[in-house]
Amino acid sequence: MTTFGYNAAMKFQSLAIGQTFSWNGETWVKTSPLVATRYESDVQKLVPRYTEVAPVPDNPPTAAPPADPLTPARVREAFDRFYGRALTLLESELETELHQRLQGELDNLRRQFIRHIEGGDG
What we know:
Blueprint: E1 2-3, E2 6-7, E3 10-11, E4 20-23, E5 26-30, E6 35-38, E7 44-46, E8 52-55, H1 72-93, H2 96-117
Antiparallel strand pairs: 1-2, 3-8, 4-5, 4-8, 5-6, 6-7
Helix pairs in contact: 1-2
């Protein structure tokens, strides 16, 4: 079997799970000892262990687009959304006295968290 310009036929059982290979003119990924998934799809197929396949050489990974930097402002914005939702849940689920006590504790923890991400001692 010649694939991608080289001869490298091997048995399906010899592939490592996660390894990409060519079989019947299509590219597949070994996803379990007896199952392969067509590359970039959800199509799965039972592959007998003795089936001859050709491993596909690893392609260099494509560069991921650079992520936006994680700034204290972005962390604070995300935390404020979380905090607001947590307070709403507290308010709707707890008795007034317990709610007030827990909200006071959460307010203190929030201030410490914000001081910490903004470079303070916390």
